[in-house]
Design a protein that fits this description.
Strands 1-4-3 form a 3-stranded antiparallel sheet. Strands 6-8-7 form a 3-stranded mixed sheet, with helices on one face. A hairpin with a 4-residue loop joins strand 7 and strand 8. Helix content is 46%, strand content 12%. The chain is an alpha+beta fold. The N terminus is likely disordered. The protein folds into 2 domains: 132 residues, no CATH class; 158 residues, no CATH class. The protein contains 10 helices and 8 strands. It is globular. The relative contact order is 0.15.
Length: 305
């Protein structure tokens, strides 16, 4: 019997996950509440067996399910991985779908292509269960660092990137022509029912730095080939997701932004028309956030060398 991972197609898995994300976006659209908001304080989802973080589309889908079902834990693992840790998934619990790509060698006897032994990426999926769904395992998930420690790390992170930031603007934006980020003064940001002024400031600053990462001298990100007239809205989605990933890494929460109201309908339209769009955006956001993290780390190493 063929395994279920070999039976599923890209279309099947793209449709399943995209529909879940579309539903989550639509349910929060009235309050500009996107699926990635209010999740970053818990950090990126992680696997207790492998010690790895879930990134990209997997981080987004696990954030959605965690919030939807009210899970407190940020740990996720497969049935067998929990078993290896001495834990047991409770009867009747449903797993969340995560995807991965496996390199597969083409059949050297295949006549479909003149080139043989070519490796290609094949999509696979598995189901993972949250730490709240198992018995026999527990871990004290720390409340996180004190605010002043998180903000100090955020300052060091931004400074290490050596980007040009000009404060005093009425709005936040990145100018590709000047390769410069324009920001309102930090004093302009205010505490809200959603979060603190400082978190709001850094969430916006991280958002603009994701845009900054796409400059031709850095990642050369260009979505026009995939999304045409919707490419700018999709770039905004990449920046939103990338900022959330950075906030999660640094323990800073991210909150709804009313100025993104104009993009929500466009995001939904593109996601409905292109079932792989959210995968492209989440992948680009993950690449961008890790690129900035690596830049920061390298800068720190050079300073101490």
């Amino acid at each position: 019997m063929r395994s279920k991972t070999s039976c599923i197609t890209k279309t099947d898995i793209y449709t399943k996950i995209t529909d879940e994300i579309i539903s989550a976006i639509e349910s929060g659209a009235a309050d500009f509440e996107m699926p990635w908001h209010r999740q970053a304080h818990a950090g990126l989802p992680r696997n207790p067996a492998t010690k790895n973080l879930y990134r990209g589309i997997n981080a987004l889908t696990l954030w959605i399910i965690r919030r939807k079902l009210g899970f407190a834990s940020s740990y996720w693992a497969s049935y067998l991985q929990w078993k290896s840790l001495g834990a047991q998934v409770r009867h009747g619990e449903k797993g969340a779908t995560v995807i991965f790509y496996k390199r597969k060698e083409e059949d050297e006897n295949s006549e479909d292509d003149e080139t043989t032994n070519q490796a290609r990426a094949v999509i696979r999926y598995s189901h993972v269960f949250n730490g709240d769904q198992v018995d026999g395992w527990s871990i004290d998930e720390a409340d996180g660092e004190a605010n002043h420690q998180k903000y100090s790390k955020a300052v060091c992170f931004i400074n290490s990137l050596q980007s040009e930031i000009r404060h005093g603007s009425d709005t936040a934006y990145y100018s590709p022509a000047l390769d410069c980020i324009f920001m309102p003064n930090q004093s302009v940001f205010r505490d809200t029912n959603s979060g603190s002024a400082v978190e709001g400031y850094y969430a916006v600053l991280f958002h603009e730095h994701i845009h900054w990462s796409g400059h031709p001298s850095r990642l050369k990100r260009d979505l026009s080939g995939r999304f045409g007239s919707s490419s700018y809205a999709m770039e905004e989605l990449v920046a939103e997701l990338g900022a959330s990933f950075l906030c999660a890494t640094l323990g800073i929460n991210t909150y709804p932004r009313s100025d993104h109201a104009a993009y929500i309908a466009n995001w939904l339209q593109v996601l409905k028309e292109h079932k792989s769009a959210i995968f492209v955006a989440a992948s680009a956001a993950s690449v961008a956030s890790q690129f900035l993290e690596n830049m920061s780390t390298q800068s720190s190493i050079e300073k101490t060398a």
